[in-house]
């Protein structure tokens, strides 16, 4: 893709700010994904086919502009940490949008546990990716990394839009397994490997005093945040499965959006070389929804999930 990106950046006027490229790409991504999610709030893959094609095209535009903003910054001599923070912040939010639209494209609603693992796992992959930067002070790339994951998402959206949801229900000969199940298994397997790989950096390449992080803190301290964020969706579903089945997008938003905040905070700590805050009040919001269920739901579940989603989105 470097050939394409190098060509593309030459078509951008020098007066265009790098952050403008990122911002425009993000707005295009948001504008094409939002209608899809509003028409498929249960992530069943029932939105009009053209919306999946539009979302795939919008994500490709975002990916292209996001990939060349750094090149544009070097062309114009305007590279700075604020621009990098804006870039990575947009990436963190876009990651959530792509997870939701990807889940819709595959119609993963049929498999609630797979949906939970898919969203939670990939959110944590993004978190751990920046965690290793916080430890080592440099970005690290794997054979199958962000760019490959992005194009996988684009492919899923385009295939769903062109061939329809029924494609995933084709039963593979010999093994008699639906294509959807194979696809989910492959995605989750690669995601799990991508979650584990950064720990070789986290455990061995700390650049701070005595092998600590860039902020001279314990390389394992962010595990506290993971332990706060990861269990809630699973505990909630085991206690009350109906919200995930009837309001999938709302449920996943309320219980996993704090992970986006955690990732952005990790990016900020990496860039400023300051200690990573292990806990924000926002991280406890999903636990409040779980507590409500455990004590018999004195507050209606769906309205409460909506309030938590709005609160998380604002922050």
Automatic annotation (TrEMBL):
The keyword Lipoprotein does not apply. InterPro entries: CDP-OH_P_trans, CDP-OH_PTrfase_TM_dom, CDP_ALCOHOL_P_TRANSF_CS, CHOPT. The chain crosses the membrane at residues 20-39, 46-65, 182-199, 219-237, 249-268, 288-310. It is found in: Membrane. GO terms for cellular component: endoplasmic reticulum membrane; Golgi apparatus. It comes from the Eukaryota. Keywords: Membrane, Transferase, Transmembrane, Transmembrane helix. GO terms for biological process: phosphatidylethanolamine biosynthetic process. GO terms for molecular function: diacylglycerol cholinephosphotransferase activity; ethanolaminephosphotransferase activity. The keyword Membrane applies. Its main location: membrane. Belongs to the CDP-alcohol phosphatidyltransferase class-I family. This is Cholinephosphotransferase 1.
């Amino acid at each position: 893709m470097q050939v394409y990106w190098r060509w593309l950046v030459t078509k951008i006027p020098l007066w265009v700010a790098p952050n403008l490229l990122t911002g425009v790409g993000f707005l295009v991504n948001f504008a094409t994904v939002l209608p899809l999610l509003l028409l498929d709030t249960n992530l069943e893959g029932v939105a009009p086919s053209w919306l999946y094609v539009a979302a795939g095209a919008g994500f490709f535009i975002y990916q292209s502009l996001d990939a060349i903003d750094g090149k544009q910054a070097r062309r114009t001599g305007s590279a700075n940490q604020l621009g990098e923070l804006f870039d990575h912040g947009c990436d963190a939010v876009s990651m959530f949008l792509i997870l939701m639209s990807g889940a819709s494209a595959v119609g993963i609603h049929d498999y609630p546990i797979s949906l939970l693992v898919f969203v939670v796992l990939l959110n944590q992959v993004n978190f751990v990716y920046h965690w290793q930067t916080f430890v080592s002070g440099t970005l690290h790339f794997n054979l199958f990394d962000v760019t490959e994951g992005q194009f996988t998402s684009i492919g899923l959206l385009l295939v769903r839009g062109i061939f329809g949801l029924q494609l995933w229900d084709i039963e593979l000969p010999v093994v008699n397994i639906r294509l959807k199940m194979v696809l989910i298994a492959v995605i989750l397997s690669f995601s799990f490997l991508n979650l584990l790989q950064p720990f070789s950096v986290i455990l061995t390449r700390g650049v701070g005093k005595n092998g600590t992080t860039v902020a001279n803190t314990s390389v394992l301290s962010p595990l506290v945040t993971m332990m706060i964020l990861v269990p809630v969706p699973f505990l909630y579903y085991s206690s009350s499965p109906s919200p995930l089945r009837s309001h999938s997008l709302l449920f996943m938003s309320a219980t996993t959006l704090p992970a986006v905040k955690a990732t952005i905070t990790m990016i900020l700590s990496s860039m400023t070389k300051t200690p990573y805050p292990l806990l924000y009040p926002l991280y406890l919001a999903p636990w409040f929804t779980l507590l409500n269920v455990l004590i018999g739901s004195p507050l209606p579940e769906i309205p409460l999930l909506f309030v938590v989603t709005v609160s998380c989105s604002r922050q």
